[in-house]
């Protein structure tokens, strides 16, 4: 499948003019005669070497794959690549929705050119497979930094302890920092939720899984160009009401998702109870949101501050929500308030 993503968007500007790109199935990889994607022999520690490392895959150096997770469109493995631990995502064909599974693979590459401490870094990607591969249902392979197996979903619901104010605010700031960086590049994640936020051994949150993401474009007058409709819907509990109604995708959709995620960190409860369709209808038609009427929200200064941020994030009107920059400012204000 020819790539719909221009190679110039995936590699640094001072690097791609020197490359000889022939016909290939991915903008990040060139298919050689022996069906092996070669990498340079330089060390990975140099600036140029890091760029080259993110442009091709050498299948012979990909070893010791161990499954660590799976989802609707693929499976994730931990493995070694040139002796370093990485994560490998194999996007599989979905028999029920082939277009959505293909779109999921290409959407993952929206963040391929980005480098940020709160974003899981993509190392390489390709739709080519070695000649000796028998994996016919694999659409493409993505190599990513290994950020560990722990996600925010597990920390909220799978442990006996609570996050506490300090950790909740720290994680929220990490996520907001990642969103601010993504939004500065006009990338909408569209599936922000605790399960898609990895927490490293260093206690740093990293936004992962860009299979539902979209890259927005601007007209000459800086107004957004309406993006194509996504076949990957994301998670309904965190999906903004305007998207549930089929309206245009904007950066504000991620702010809504952050609000639901922030509420989960605070309360350690599930956002909604009941069947999917009634919940969707109530979110759109009756402005249903997770409850902020508990004693916690009403009787504490901390709870009131949280309630204010939540209501600004999940407002039914996208234009009335916080921007990612303002969200970051609100969280920093709450942090400074807690320290006084």
Report on the architecture of this protein.
This protein has 340 residues and is α+β, with helices and mostly antiparallel strands. The protein folds into two domains: 7-145, Phosphorylase Kinase, domain 1 (2-Layer Sandwich); 152-339, Orthogonal Bundle (Transferase(Phosphotransferase), domain 1). It is 32% helix and 16% strand. It contains ten helices and eleven strands. It has helices at 47-53, 98-108, 152-157, 164-184, 241-244, 252-267, 276-285, 295-299, 301-313, 324-339; strands at residues 62-70, 74-81, 84-92, 122-126, 138-145, 187-188, 197-199, 205-207, 214-215, 217-218, 224-225. A five-stranded antiparallel sheet has the order 1-2-3-5-4. Helix 4 runs antiparallel to helix 10, helix 6 (252-267) packs antiparallel against helix 9 and helix 9 (301-313) runs antiparallel to helix 10 (324-339). It is globular.
Question: What would a concise description of this structure say?
Answer:
By secondary structure, the protein is α+β, with helices and mostly antiparallel strands. It has helices at 47-53, 98-108, 152-157, 164-184, 241-244, 252-267, 276-285, 295-299, 301-313, 324-339; strands spanning 62-70, 74-81, 84-92, 122-126, 138-145, 187-188, 197-199, 205-207, 214-215, 217-218, 224-225.
Largest sheet, order of strands side by side? 1-2-3-5-4
* Radius of gyration based on Cα positions: 21 Å
Number of strands: 11
How far is the N terminus from the C terminus? Answer: 57 Å
Count of DSSP-assigned helices:
10
- Strand portion: 15-25%
Number of domains: 2
């Amino acid at each position: 499948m020819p790539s719909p993503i221009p190679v110039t968007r995936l590699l640094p500007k001072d690097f791609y003019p020197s490359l000889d790109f022939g016909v290939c199935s991915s903008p990040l990889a060139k298919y050689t005669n022996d069906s092996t994607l070669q990498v340079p022999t330089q060390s990975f520690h140099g600036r140029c070497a890091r760029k080259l490392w993110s442009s091709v895959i050498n299948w012979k150096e990909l070893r010791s794959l161990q499954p660590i997770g799976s989802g609707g469109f693929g499976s994730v493995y931990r493995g070694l690549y040139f002796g370093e631990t990485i994560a490998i995502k194999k996007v599989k064909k979905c028999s029920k929705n082939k277009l959505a599974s293909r779109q999921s693979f290409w959407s993952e590459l929206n963040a391929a050119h980005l480098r940020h401490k709160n974003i899981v870094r993509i190392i390489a990607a390709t739709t080519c497979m070695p000649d000796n591969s028998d994996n016919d249902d694999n659409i493409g392979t993505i190599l990513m930094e290994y950020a560990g197996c722990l996600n925010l979903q597990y920390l909220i619901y799978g442990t006996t302890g609570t996050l506490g104010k300090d950790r909740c605010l720290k994680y929220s700031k990490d996520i907001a920092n990642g969103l601010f960086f993504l939004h500065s590049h006009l990338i909408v994640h569209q599936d922000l939720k605790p399960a898609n936020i990895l927490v490293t051994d260093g206690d740093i949150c990293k936004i992962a899984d860009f299979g539902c993401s979209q890259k927005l474009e601007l007209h000459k007058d800086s107004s957004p160009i309406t993006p194509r409709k996504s076949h990957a819907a994301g998670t309904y509990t965190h999906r903004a009401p305007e998207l549930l109604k089929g309206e245009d995708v904007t950066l504000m959709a991620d702010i809504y998702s952050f609000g639901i995620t922030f509420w989960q960190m605070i309360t350690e409860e599930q956002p909604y109870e009941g069947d999917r369709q009634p919940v969707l209808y109530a979110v759109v038609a009756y402005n249903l949101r997770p409850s902020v009427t508990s004693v916690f929200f009403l009787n504490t200064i901390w709870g009131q501050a949280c309630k204010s941020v939540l209501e600004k994030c999940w407002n039914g009107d996208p234009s009335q929500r916080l921007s990612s920059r303002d969200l970051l400012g609100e969280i920093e204000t709450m942090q400074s308030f807690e320290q006084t």
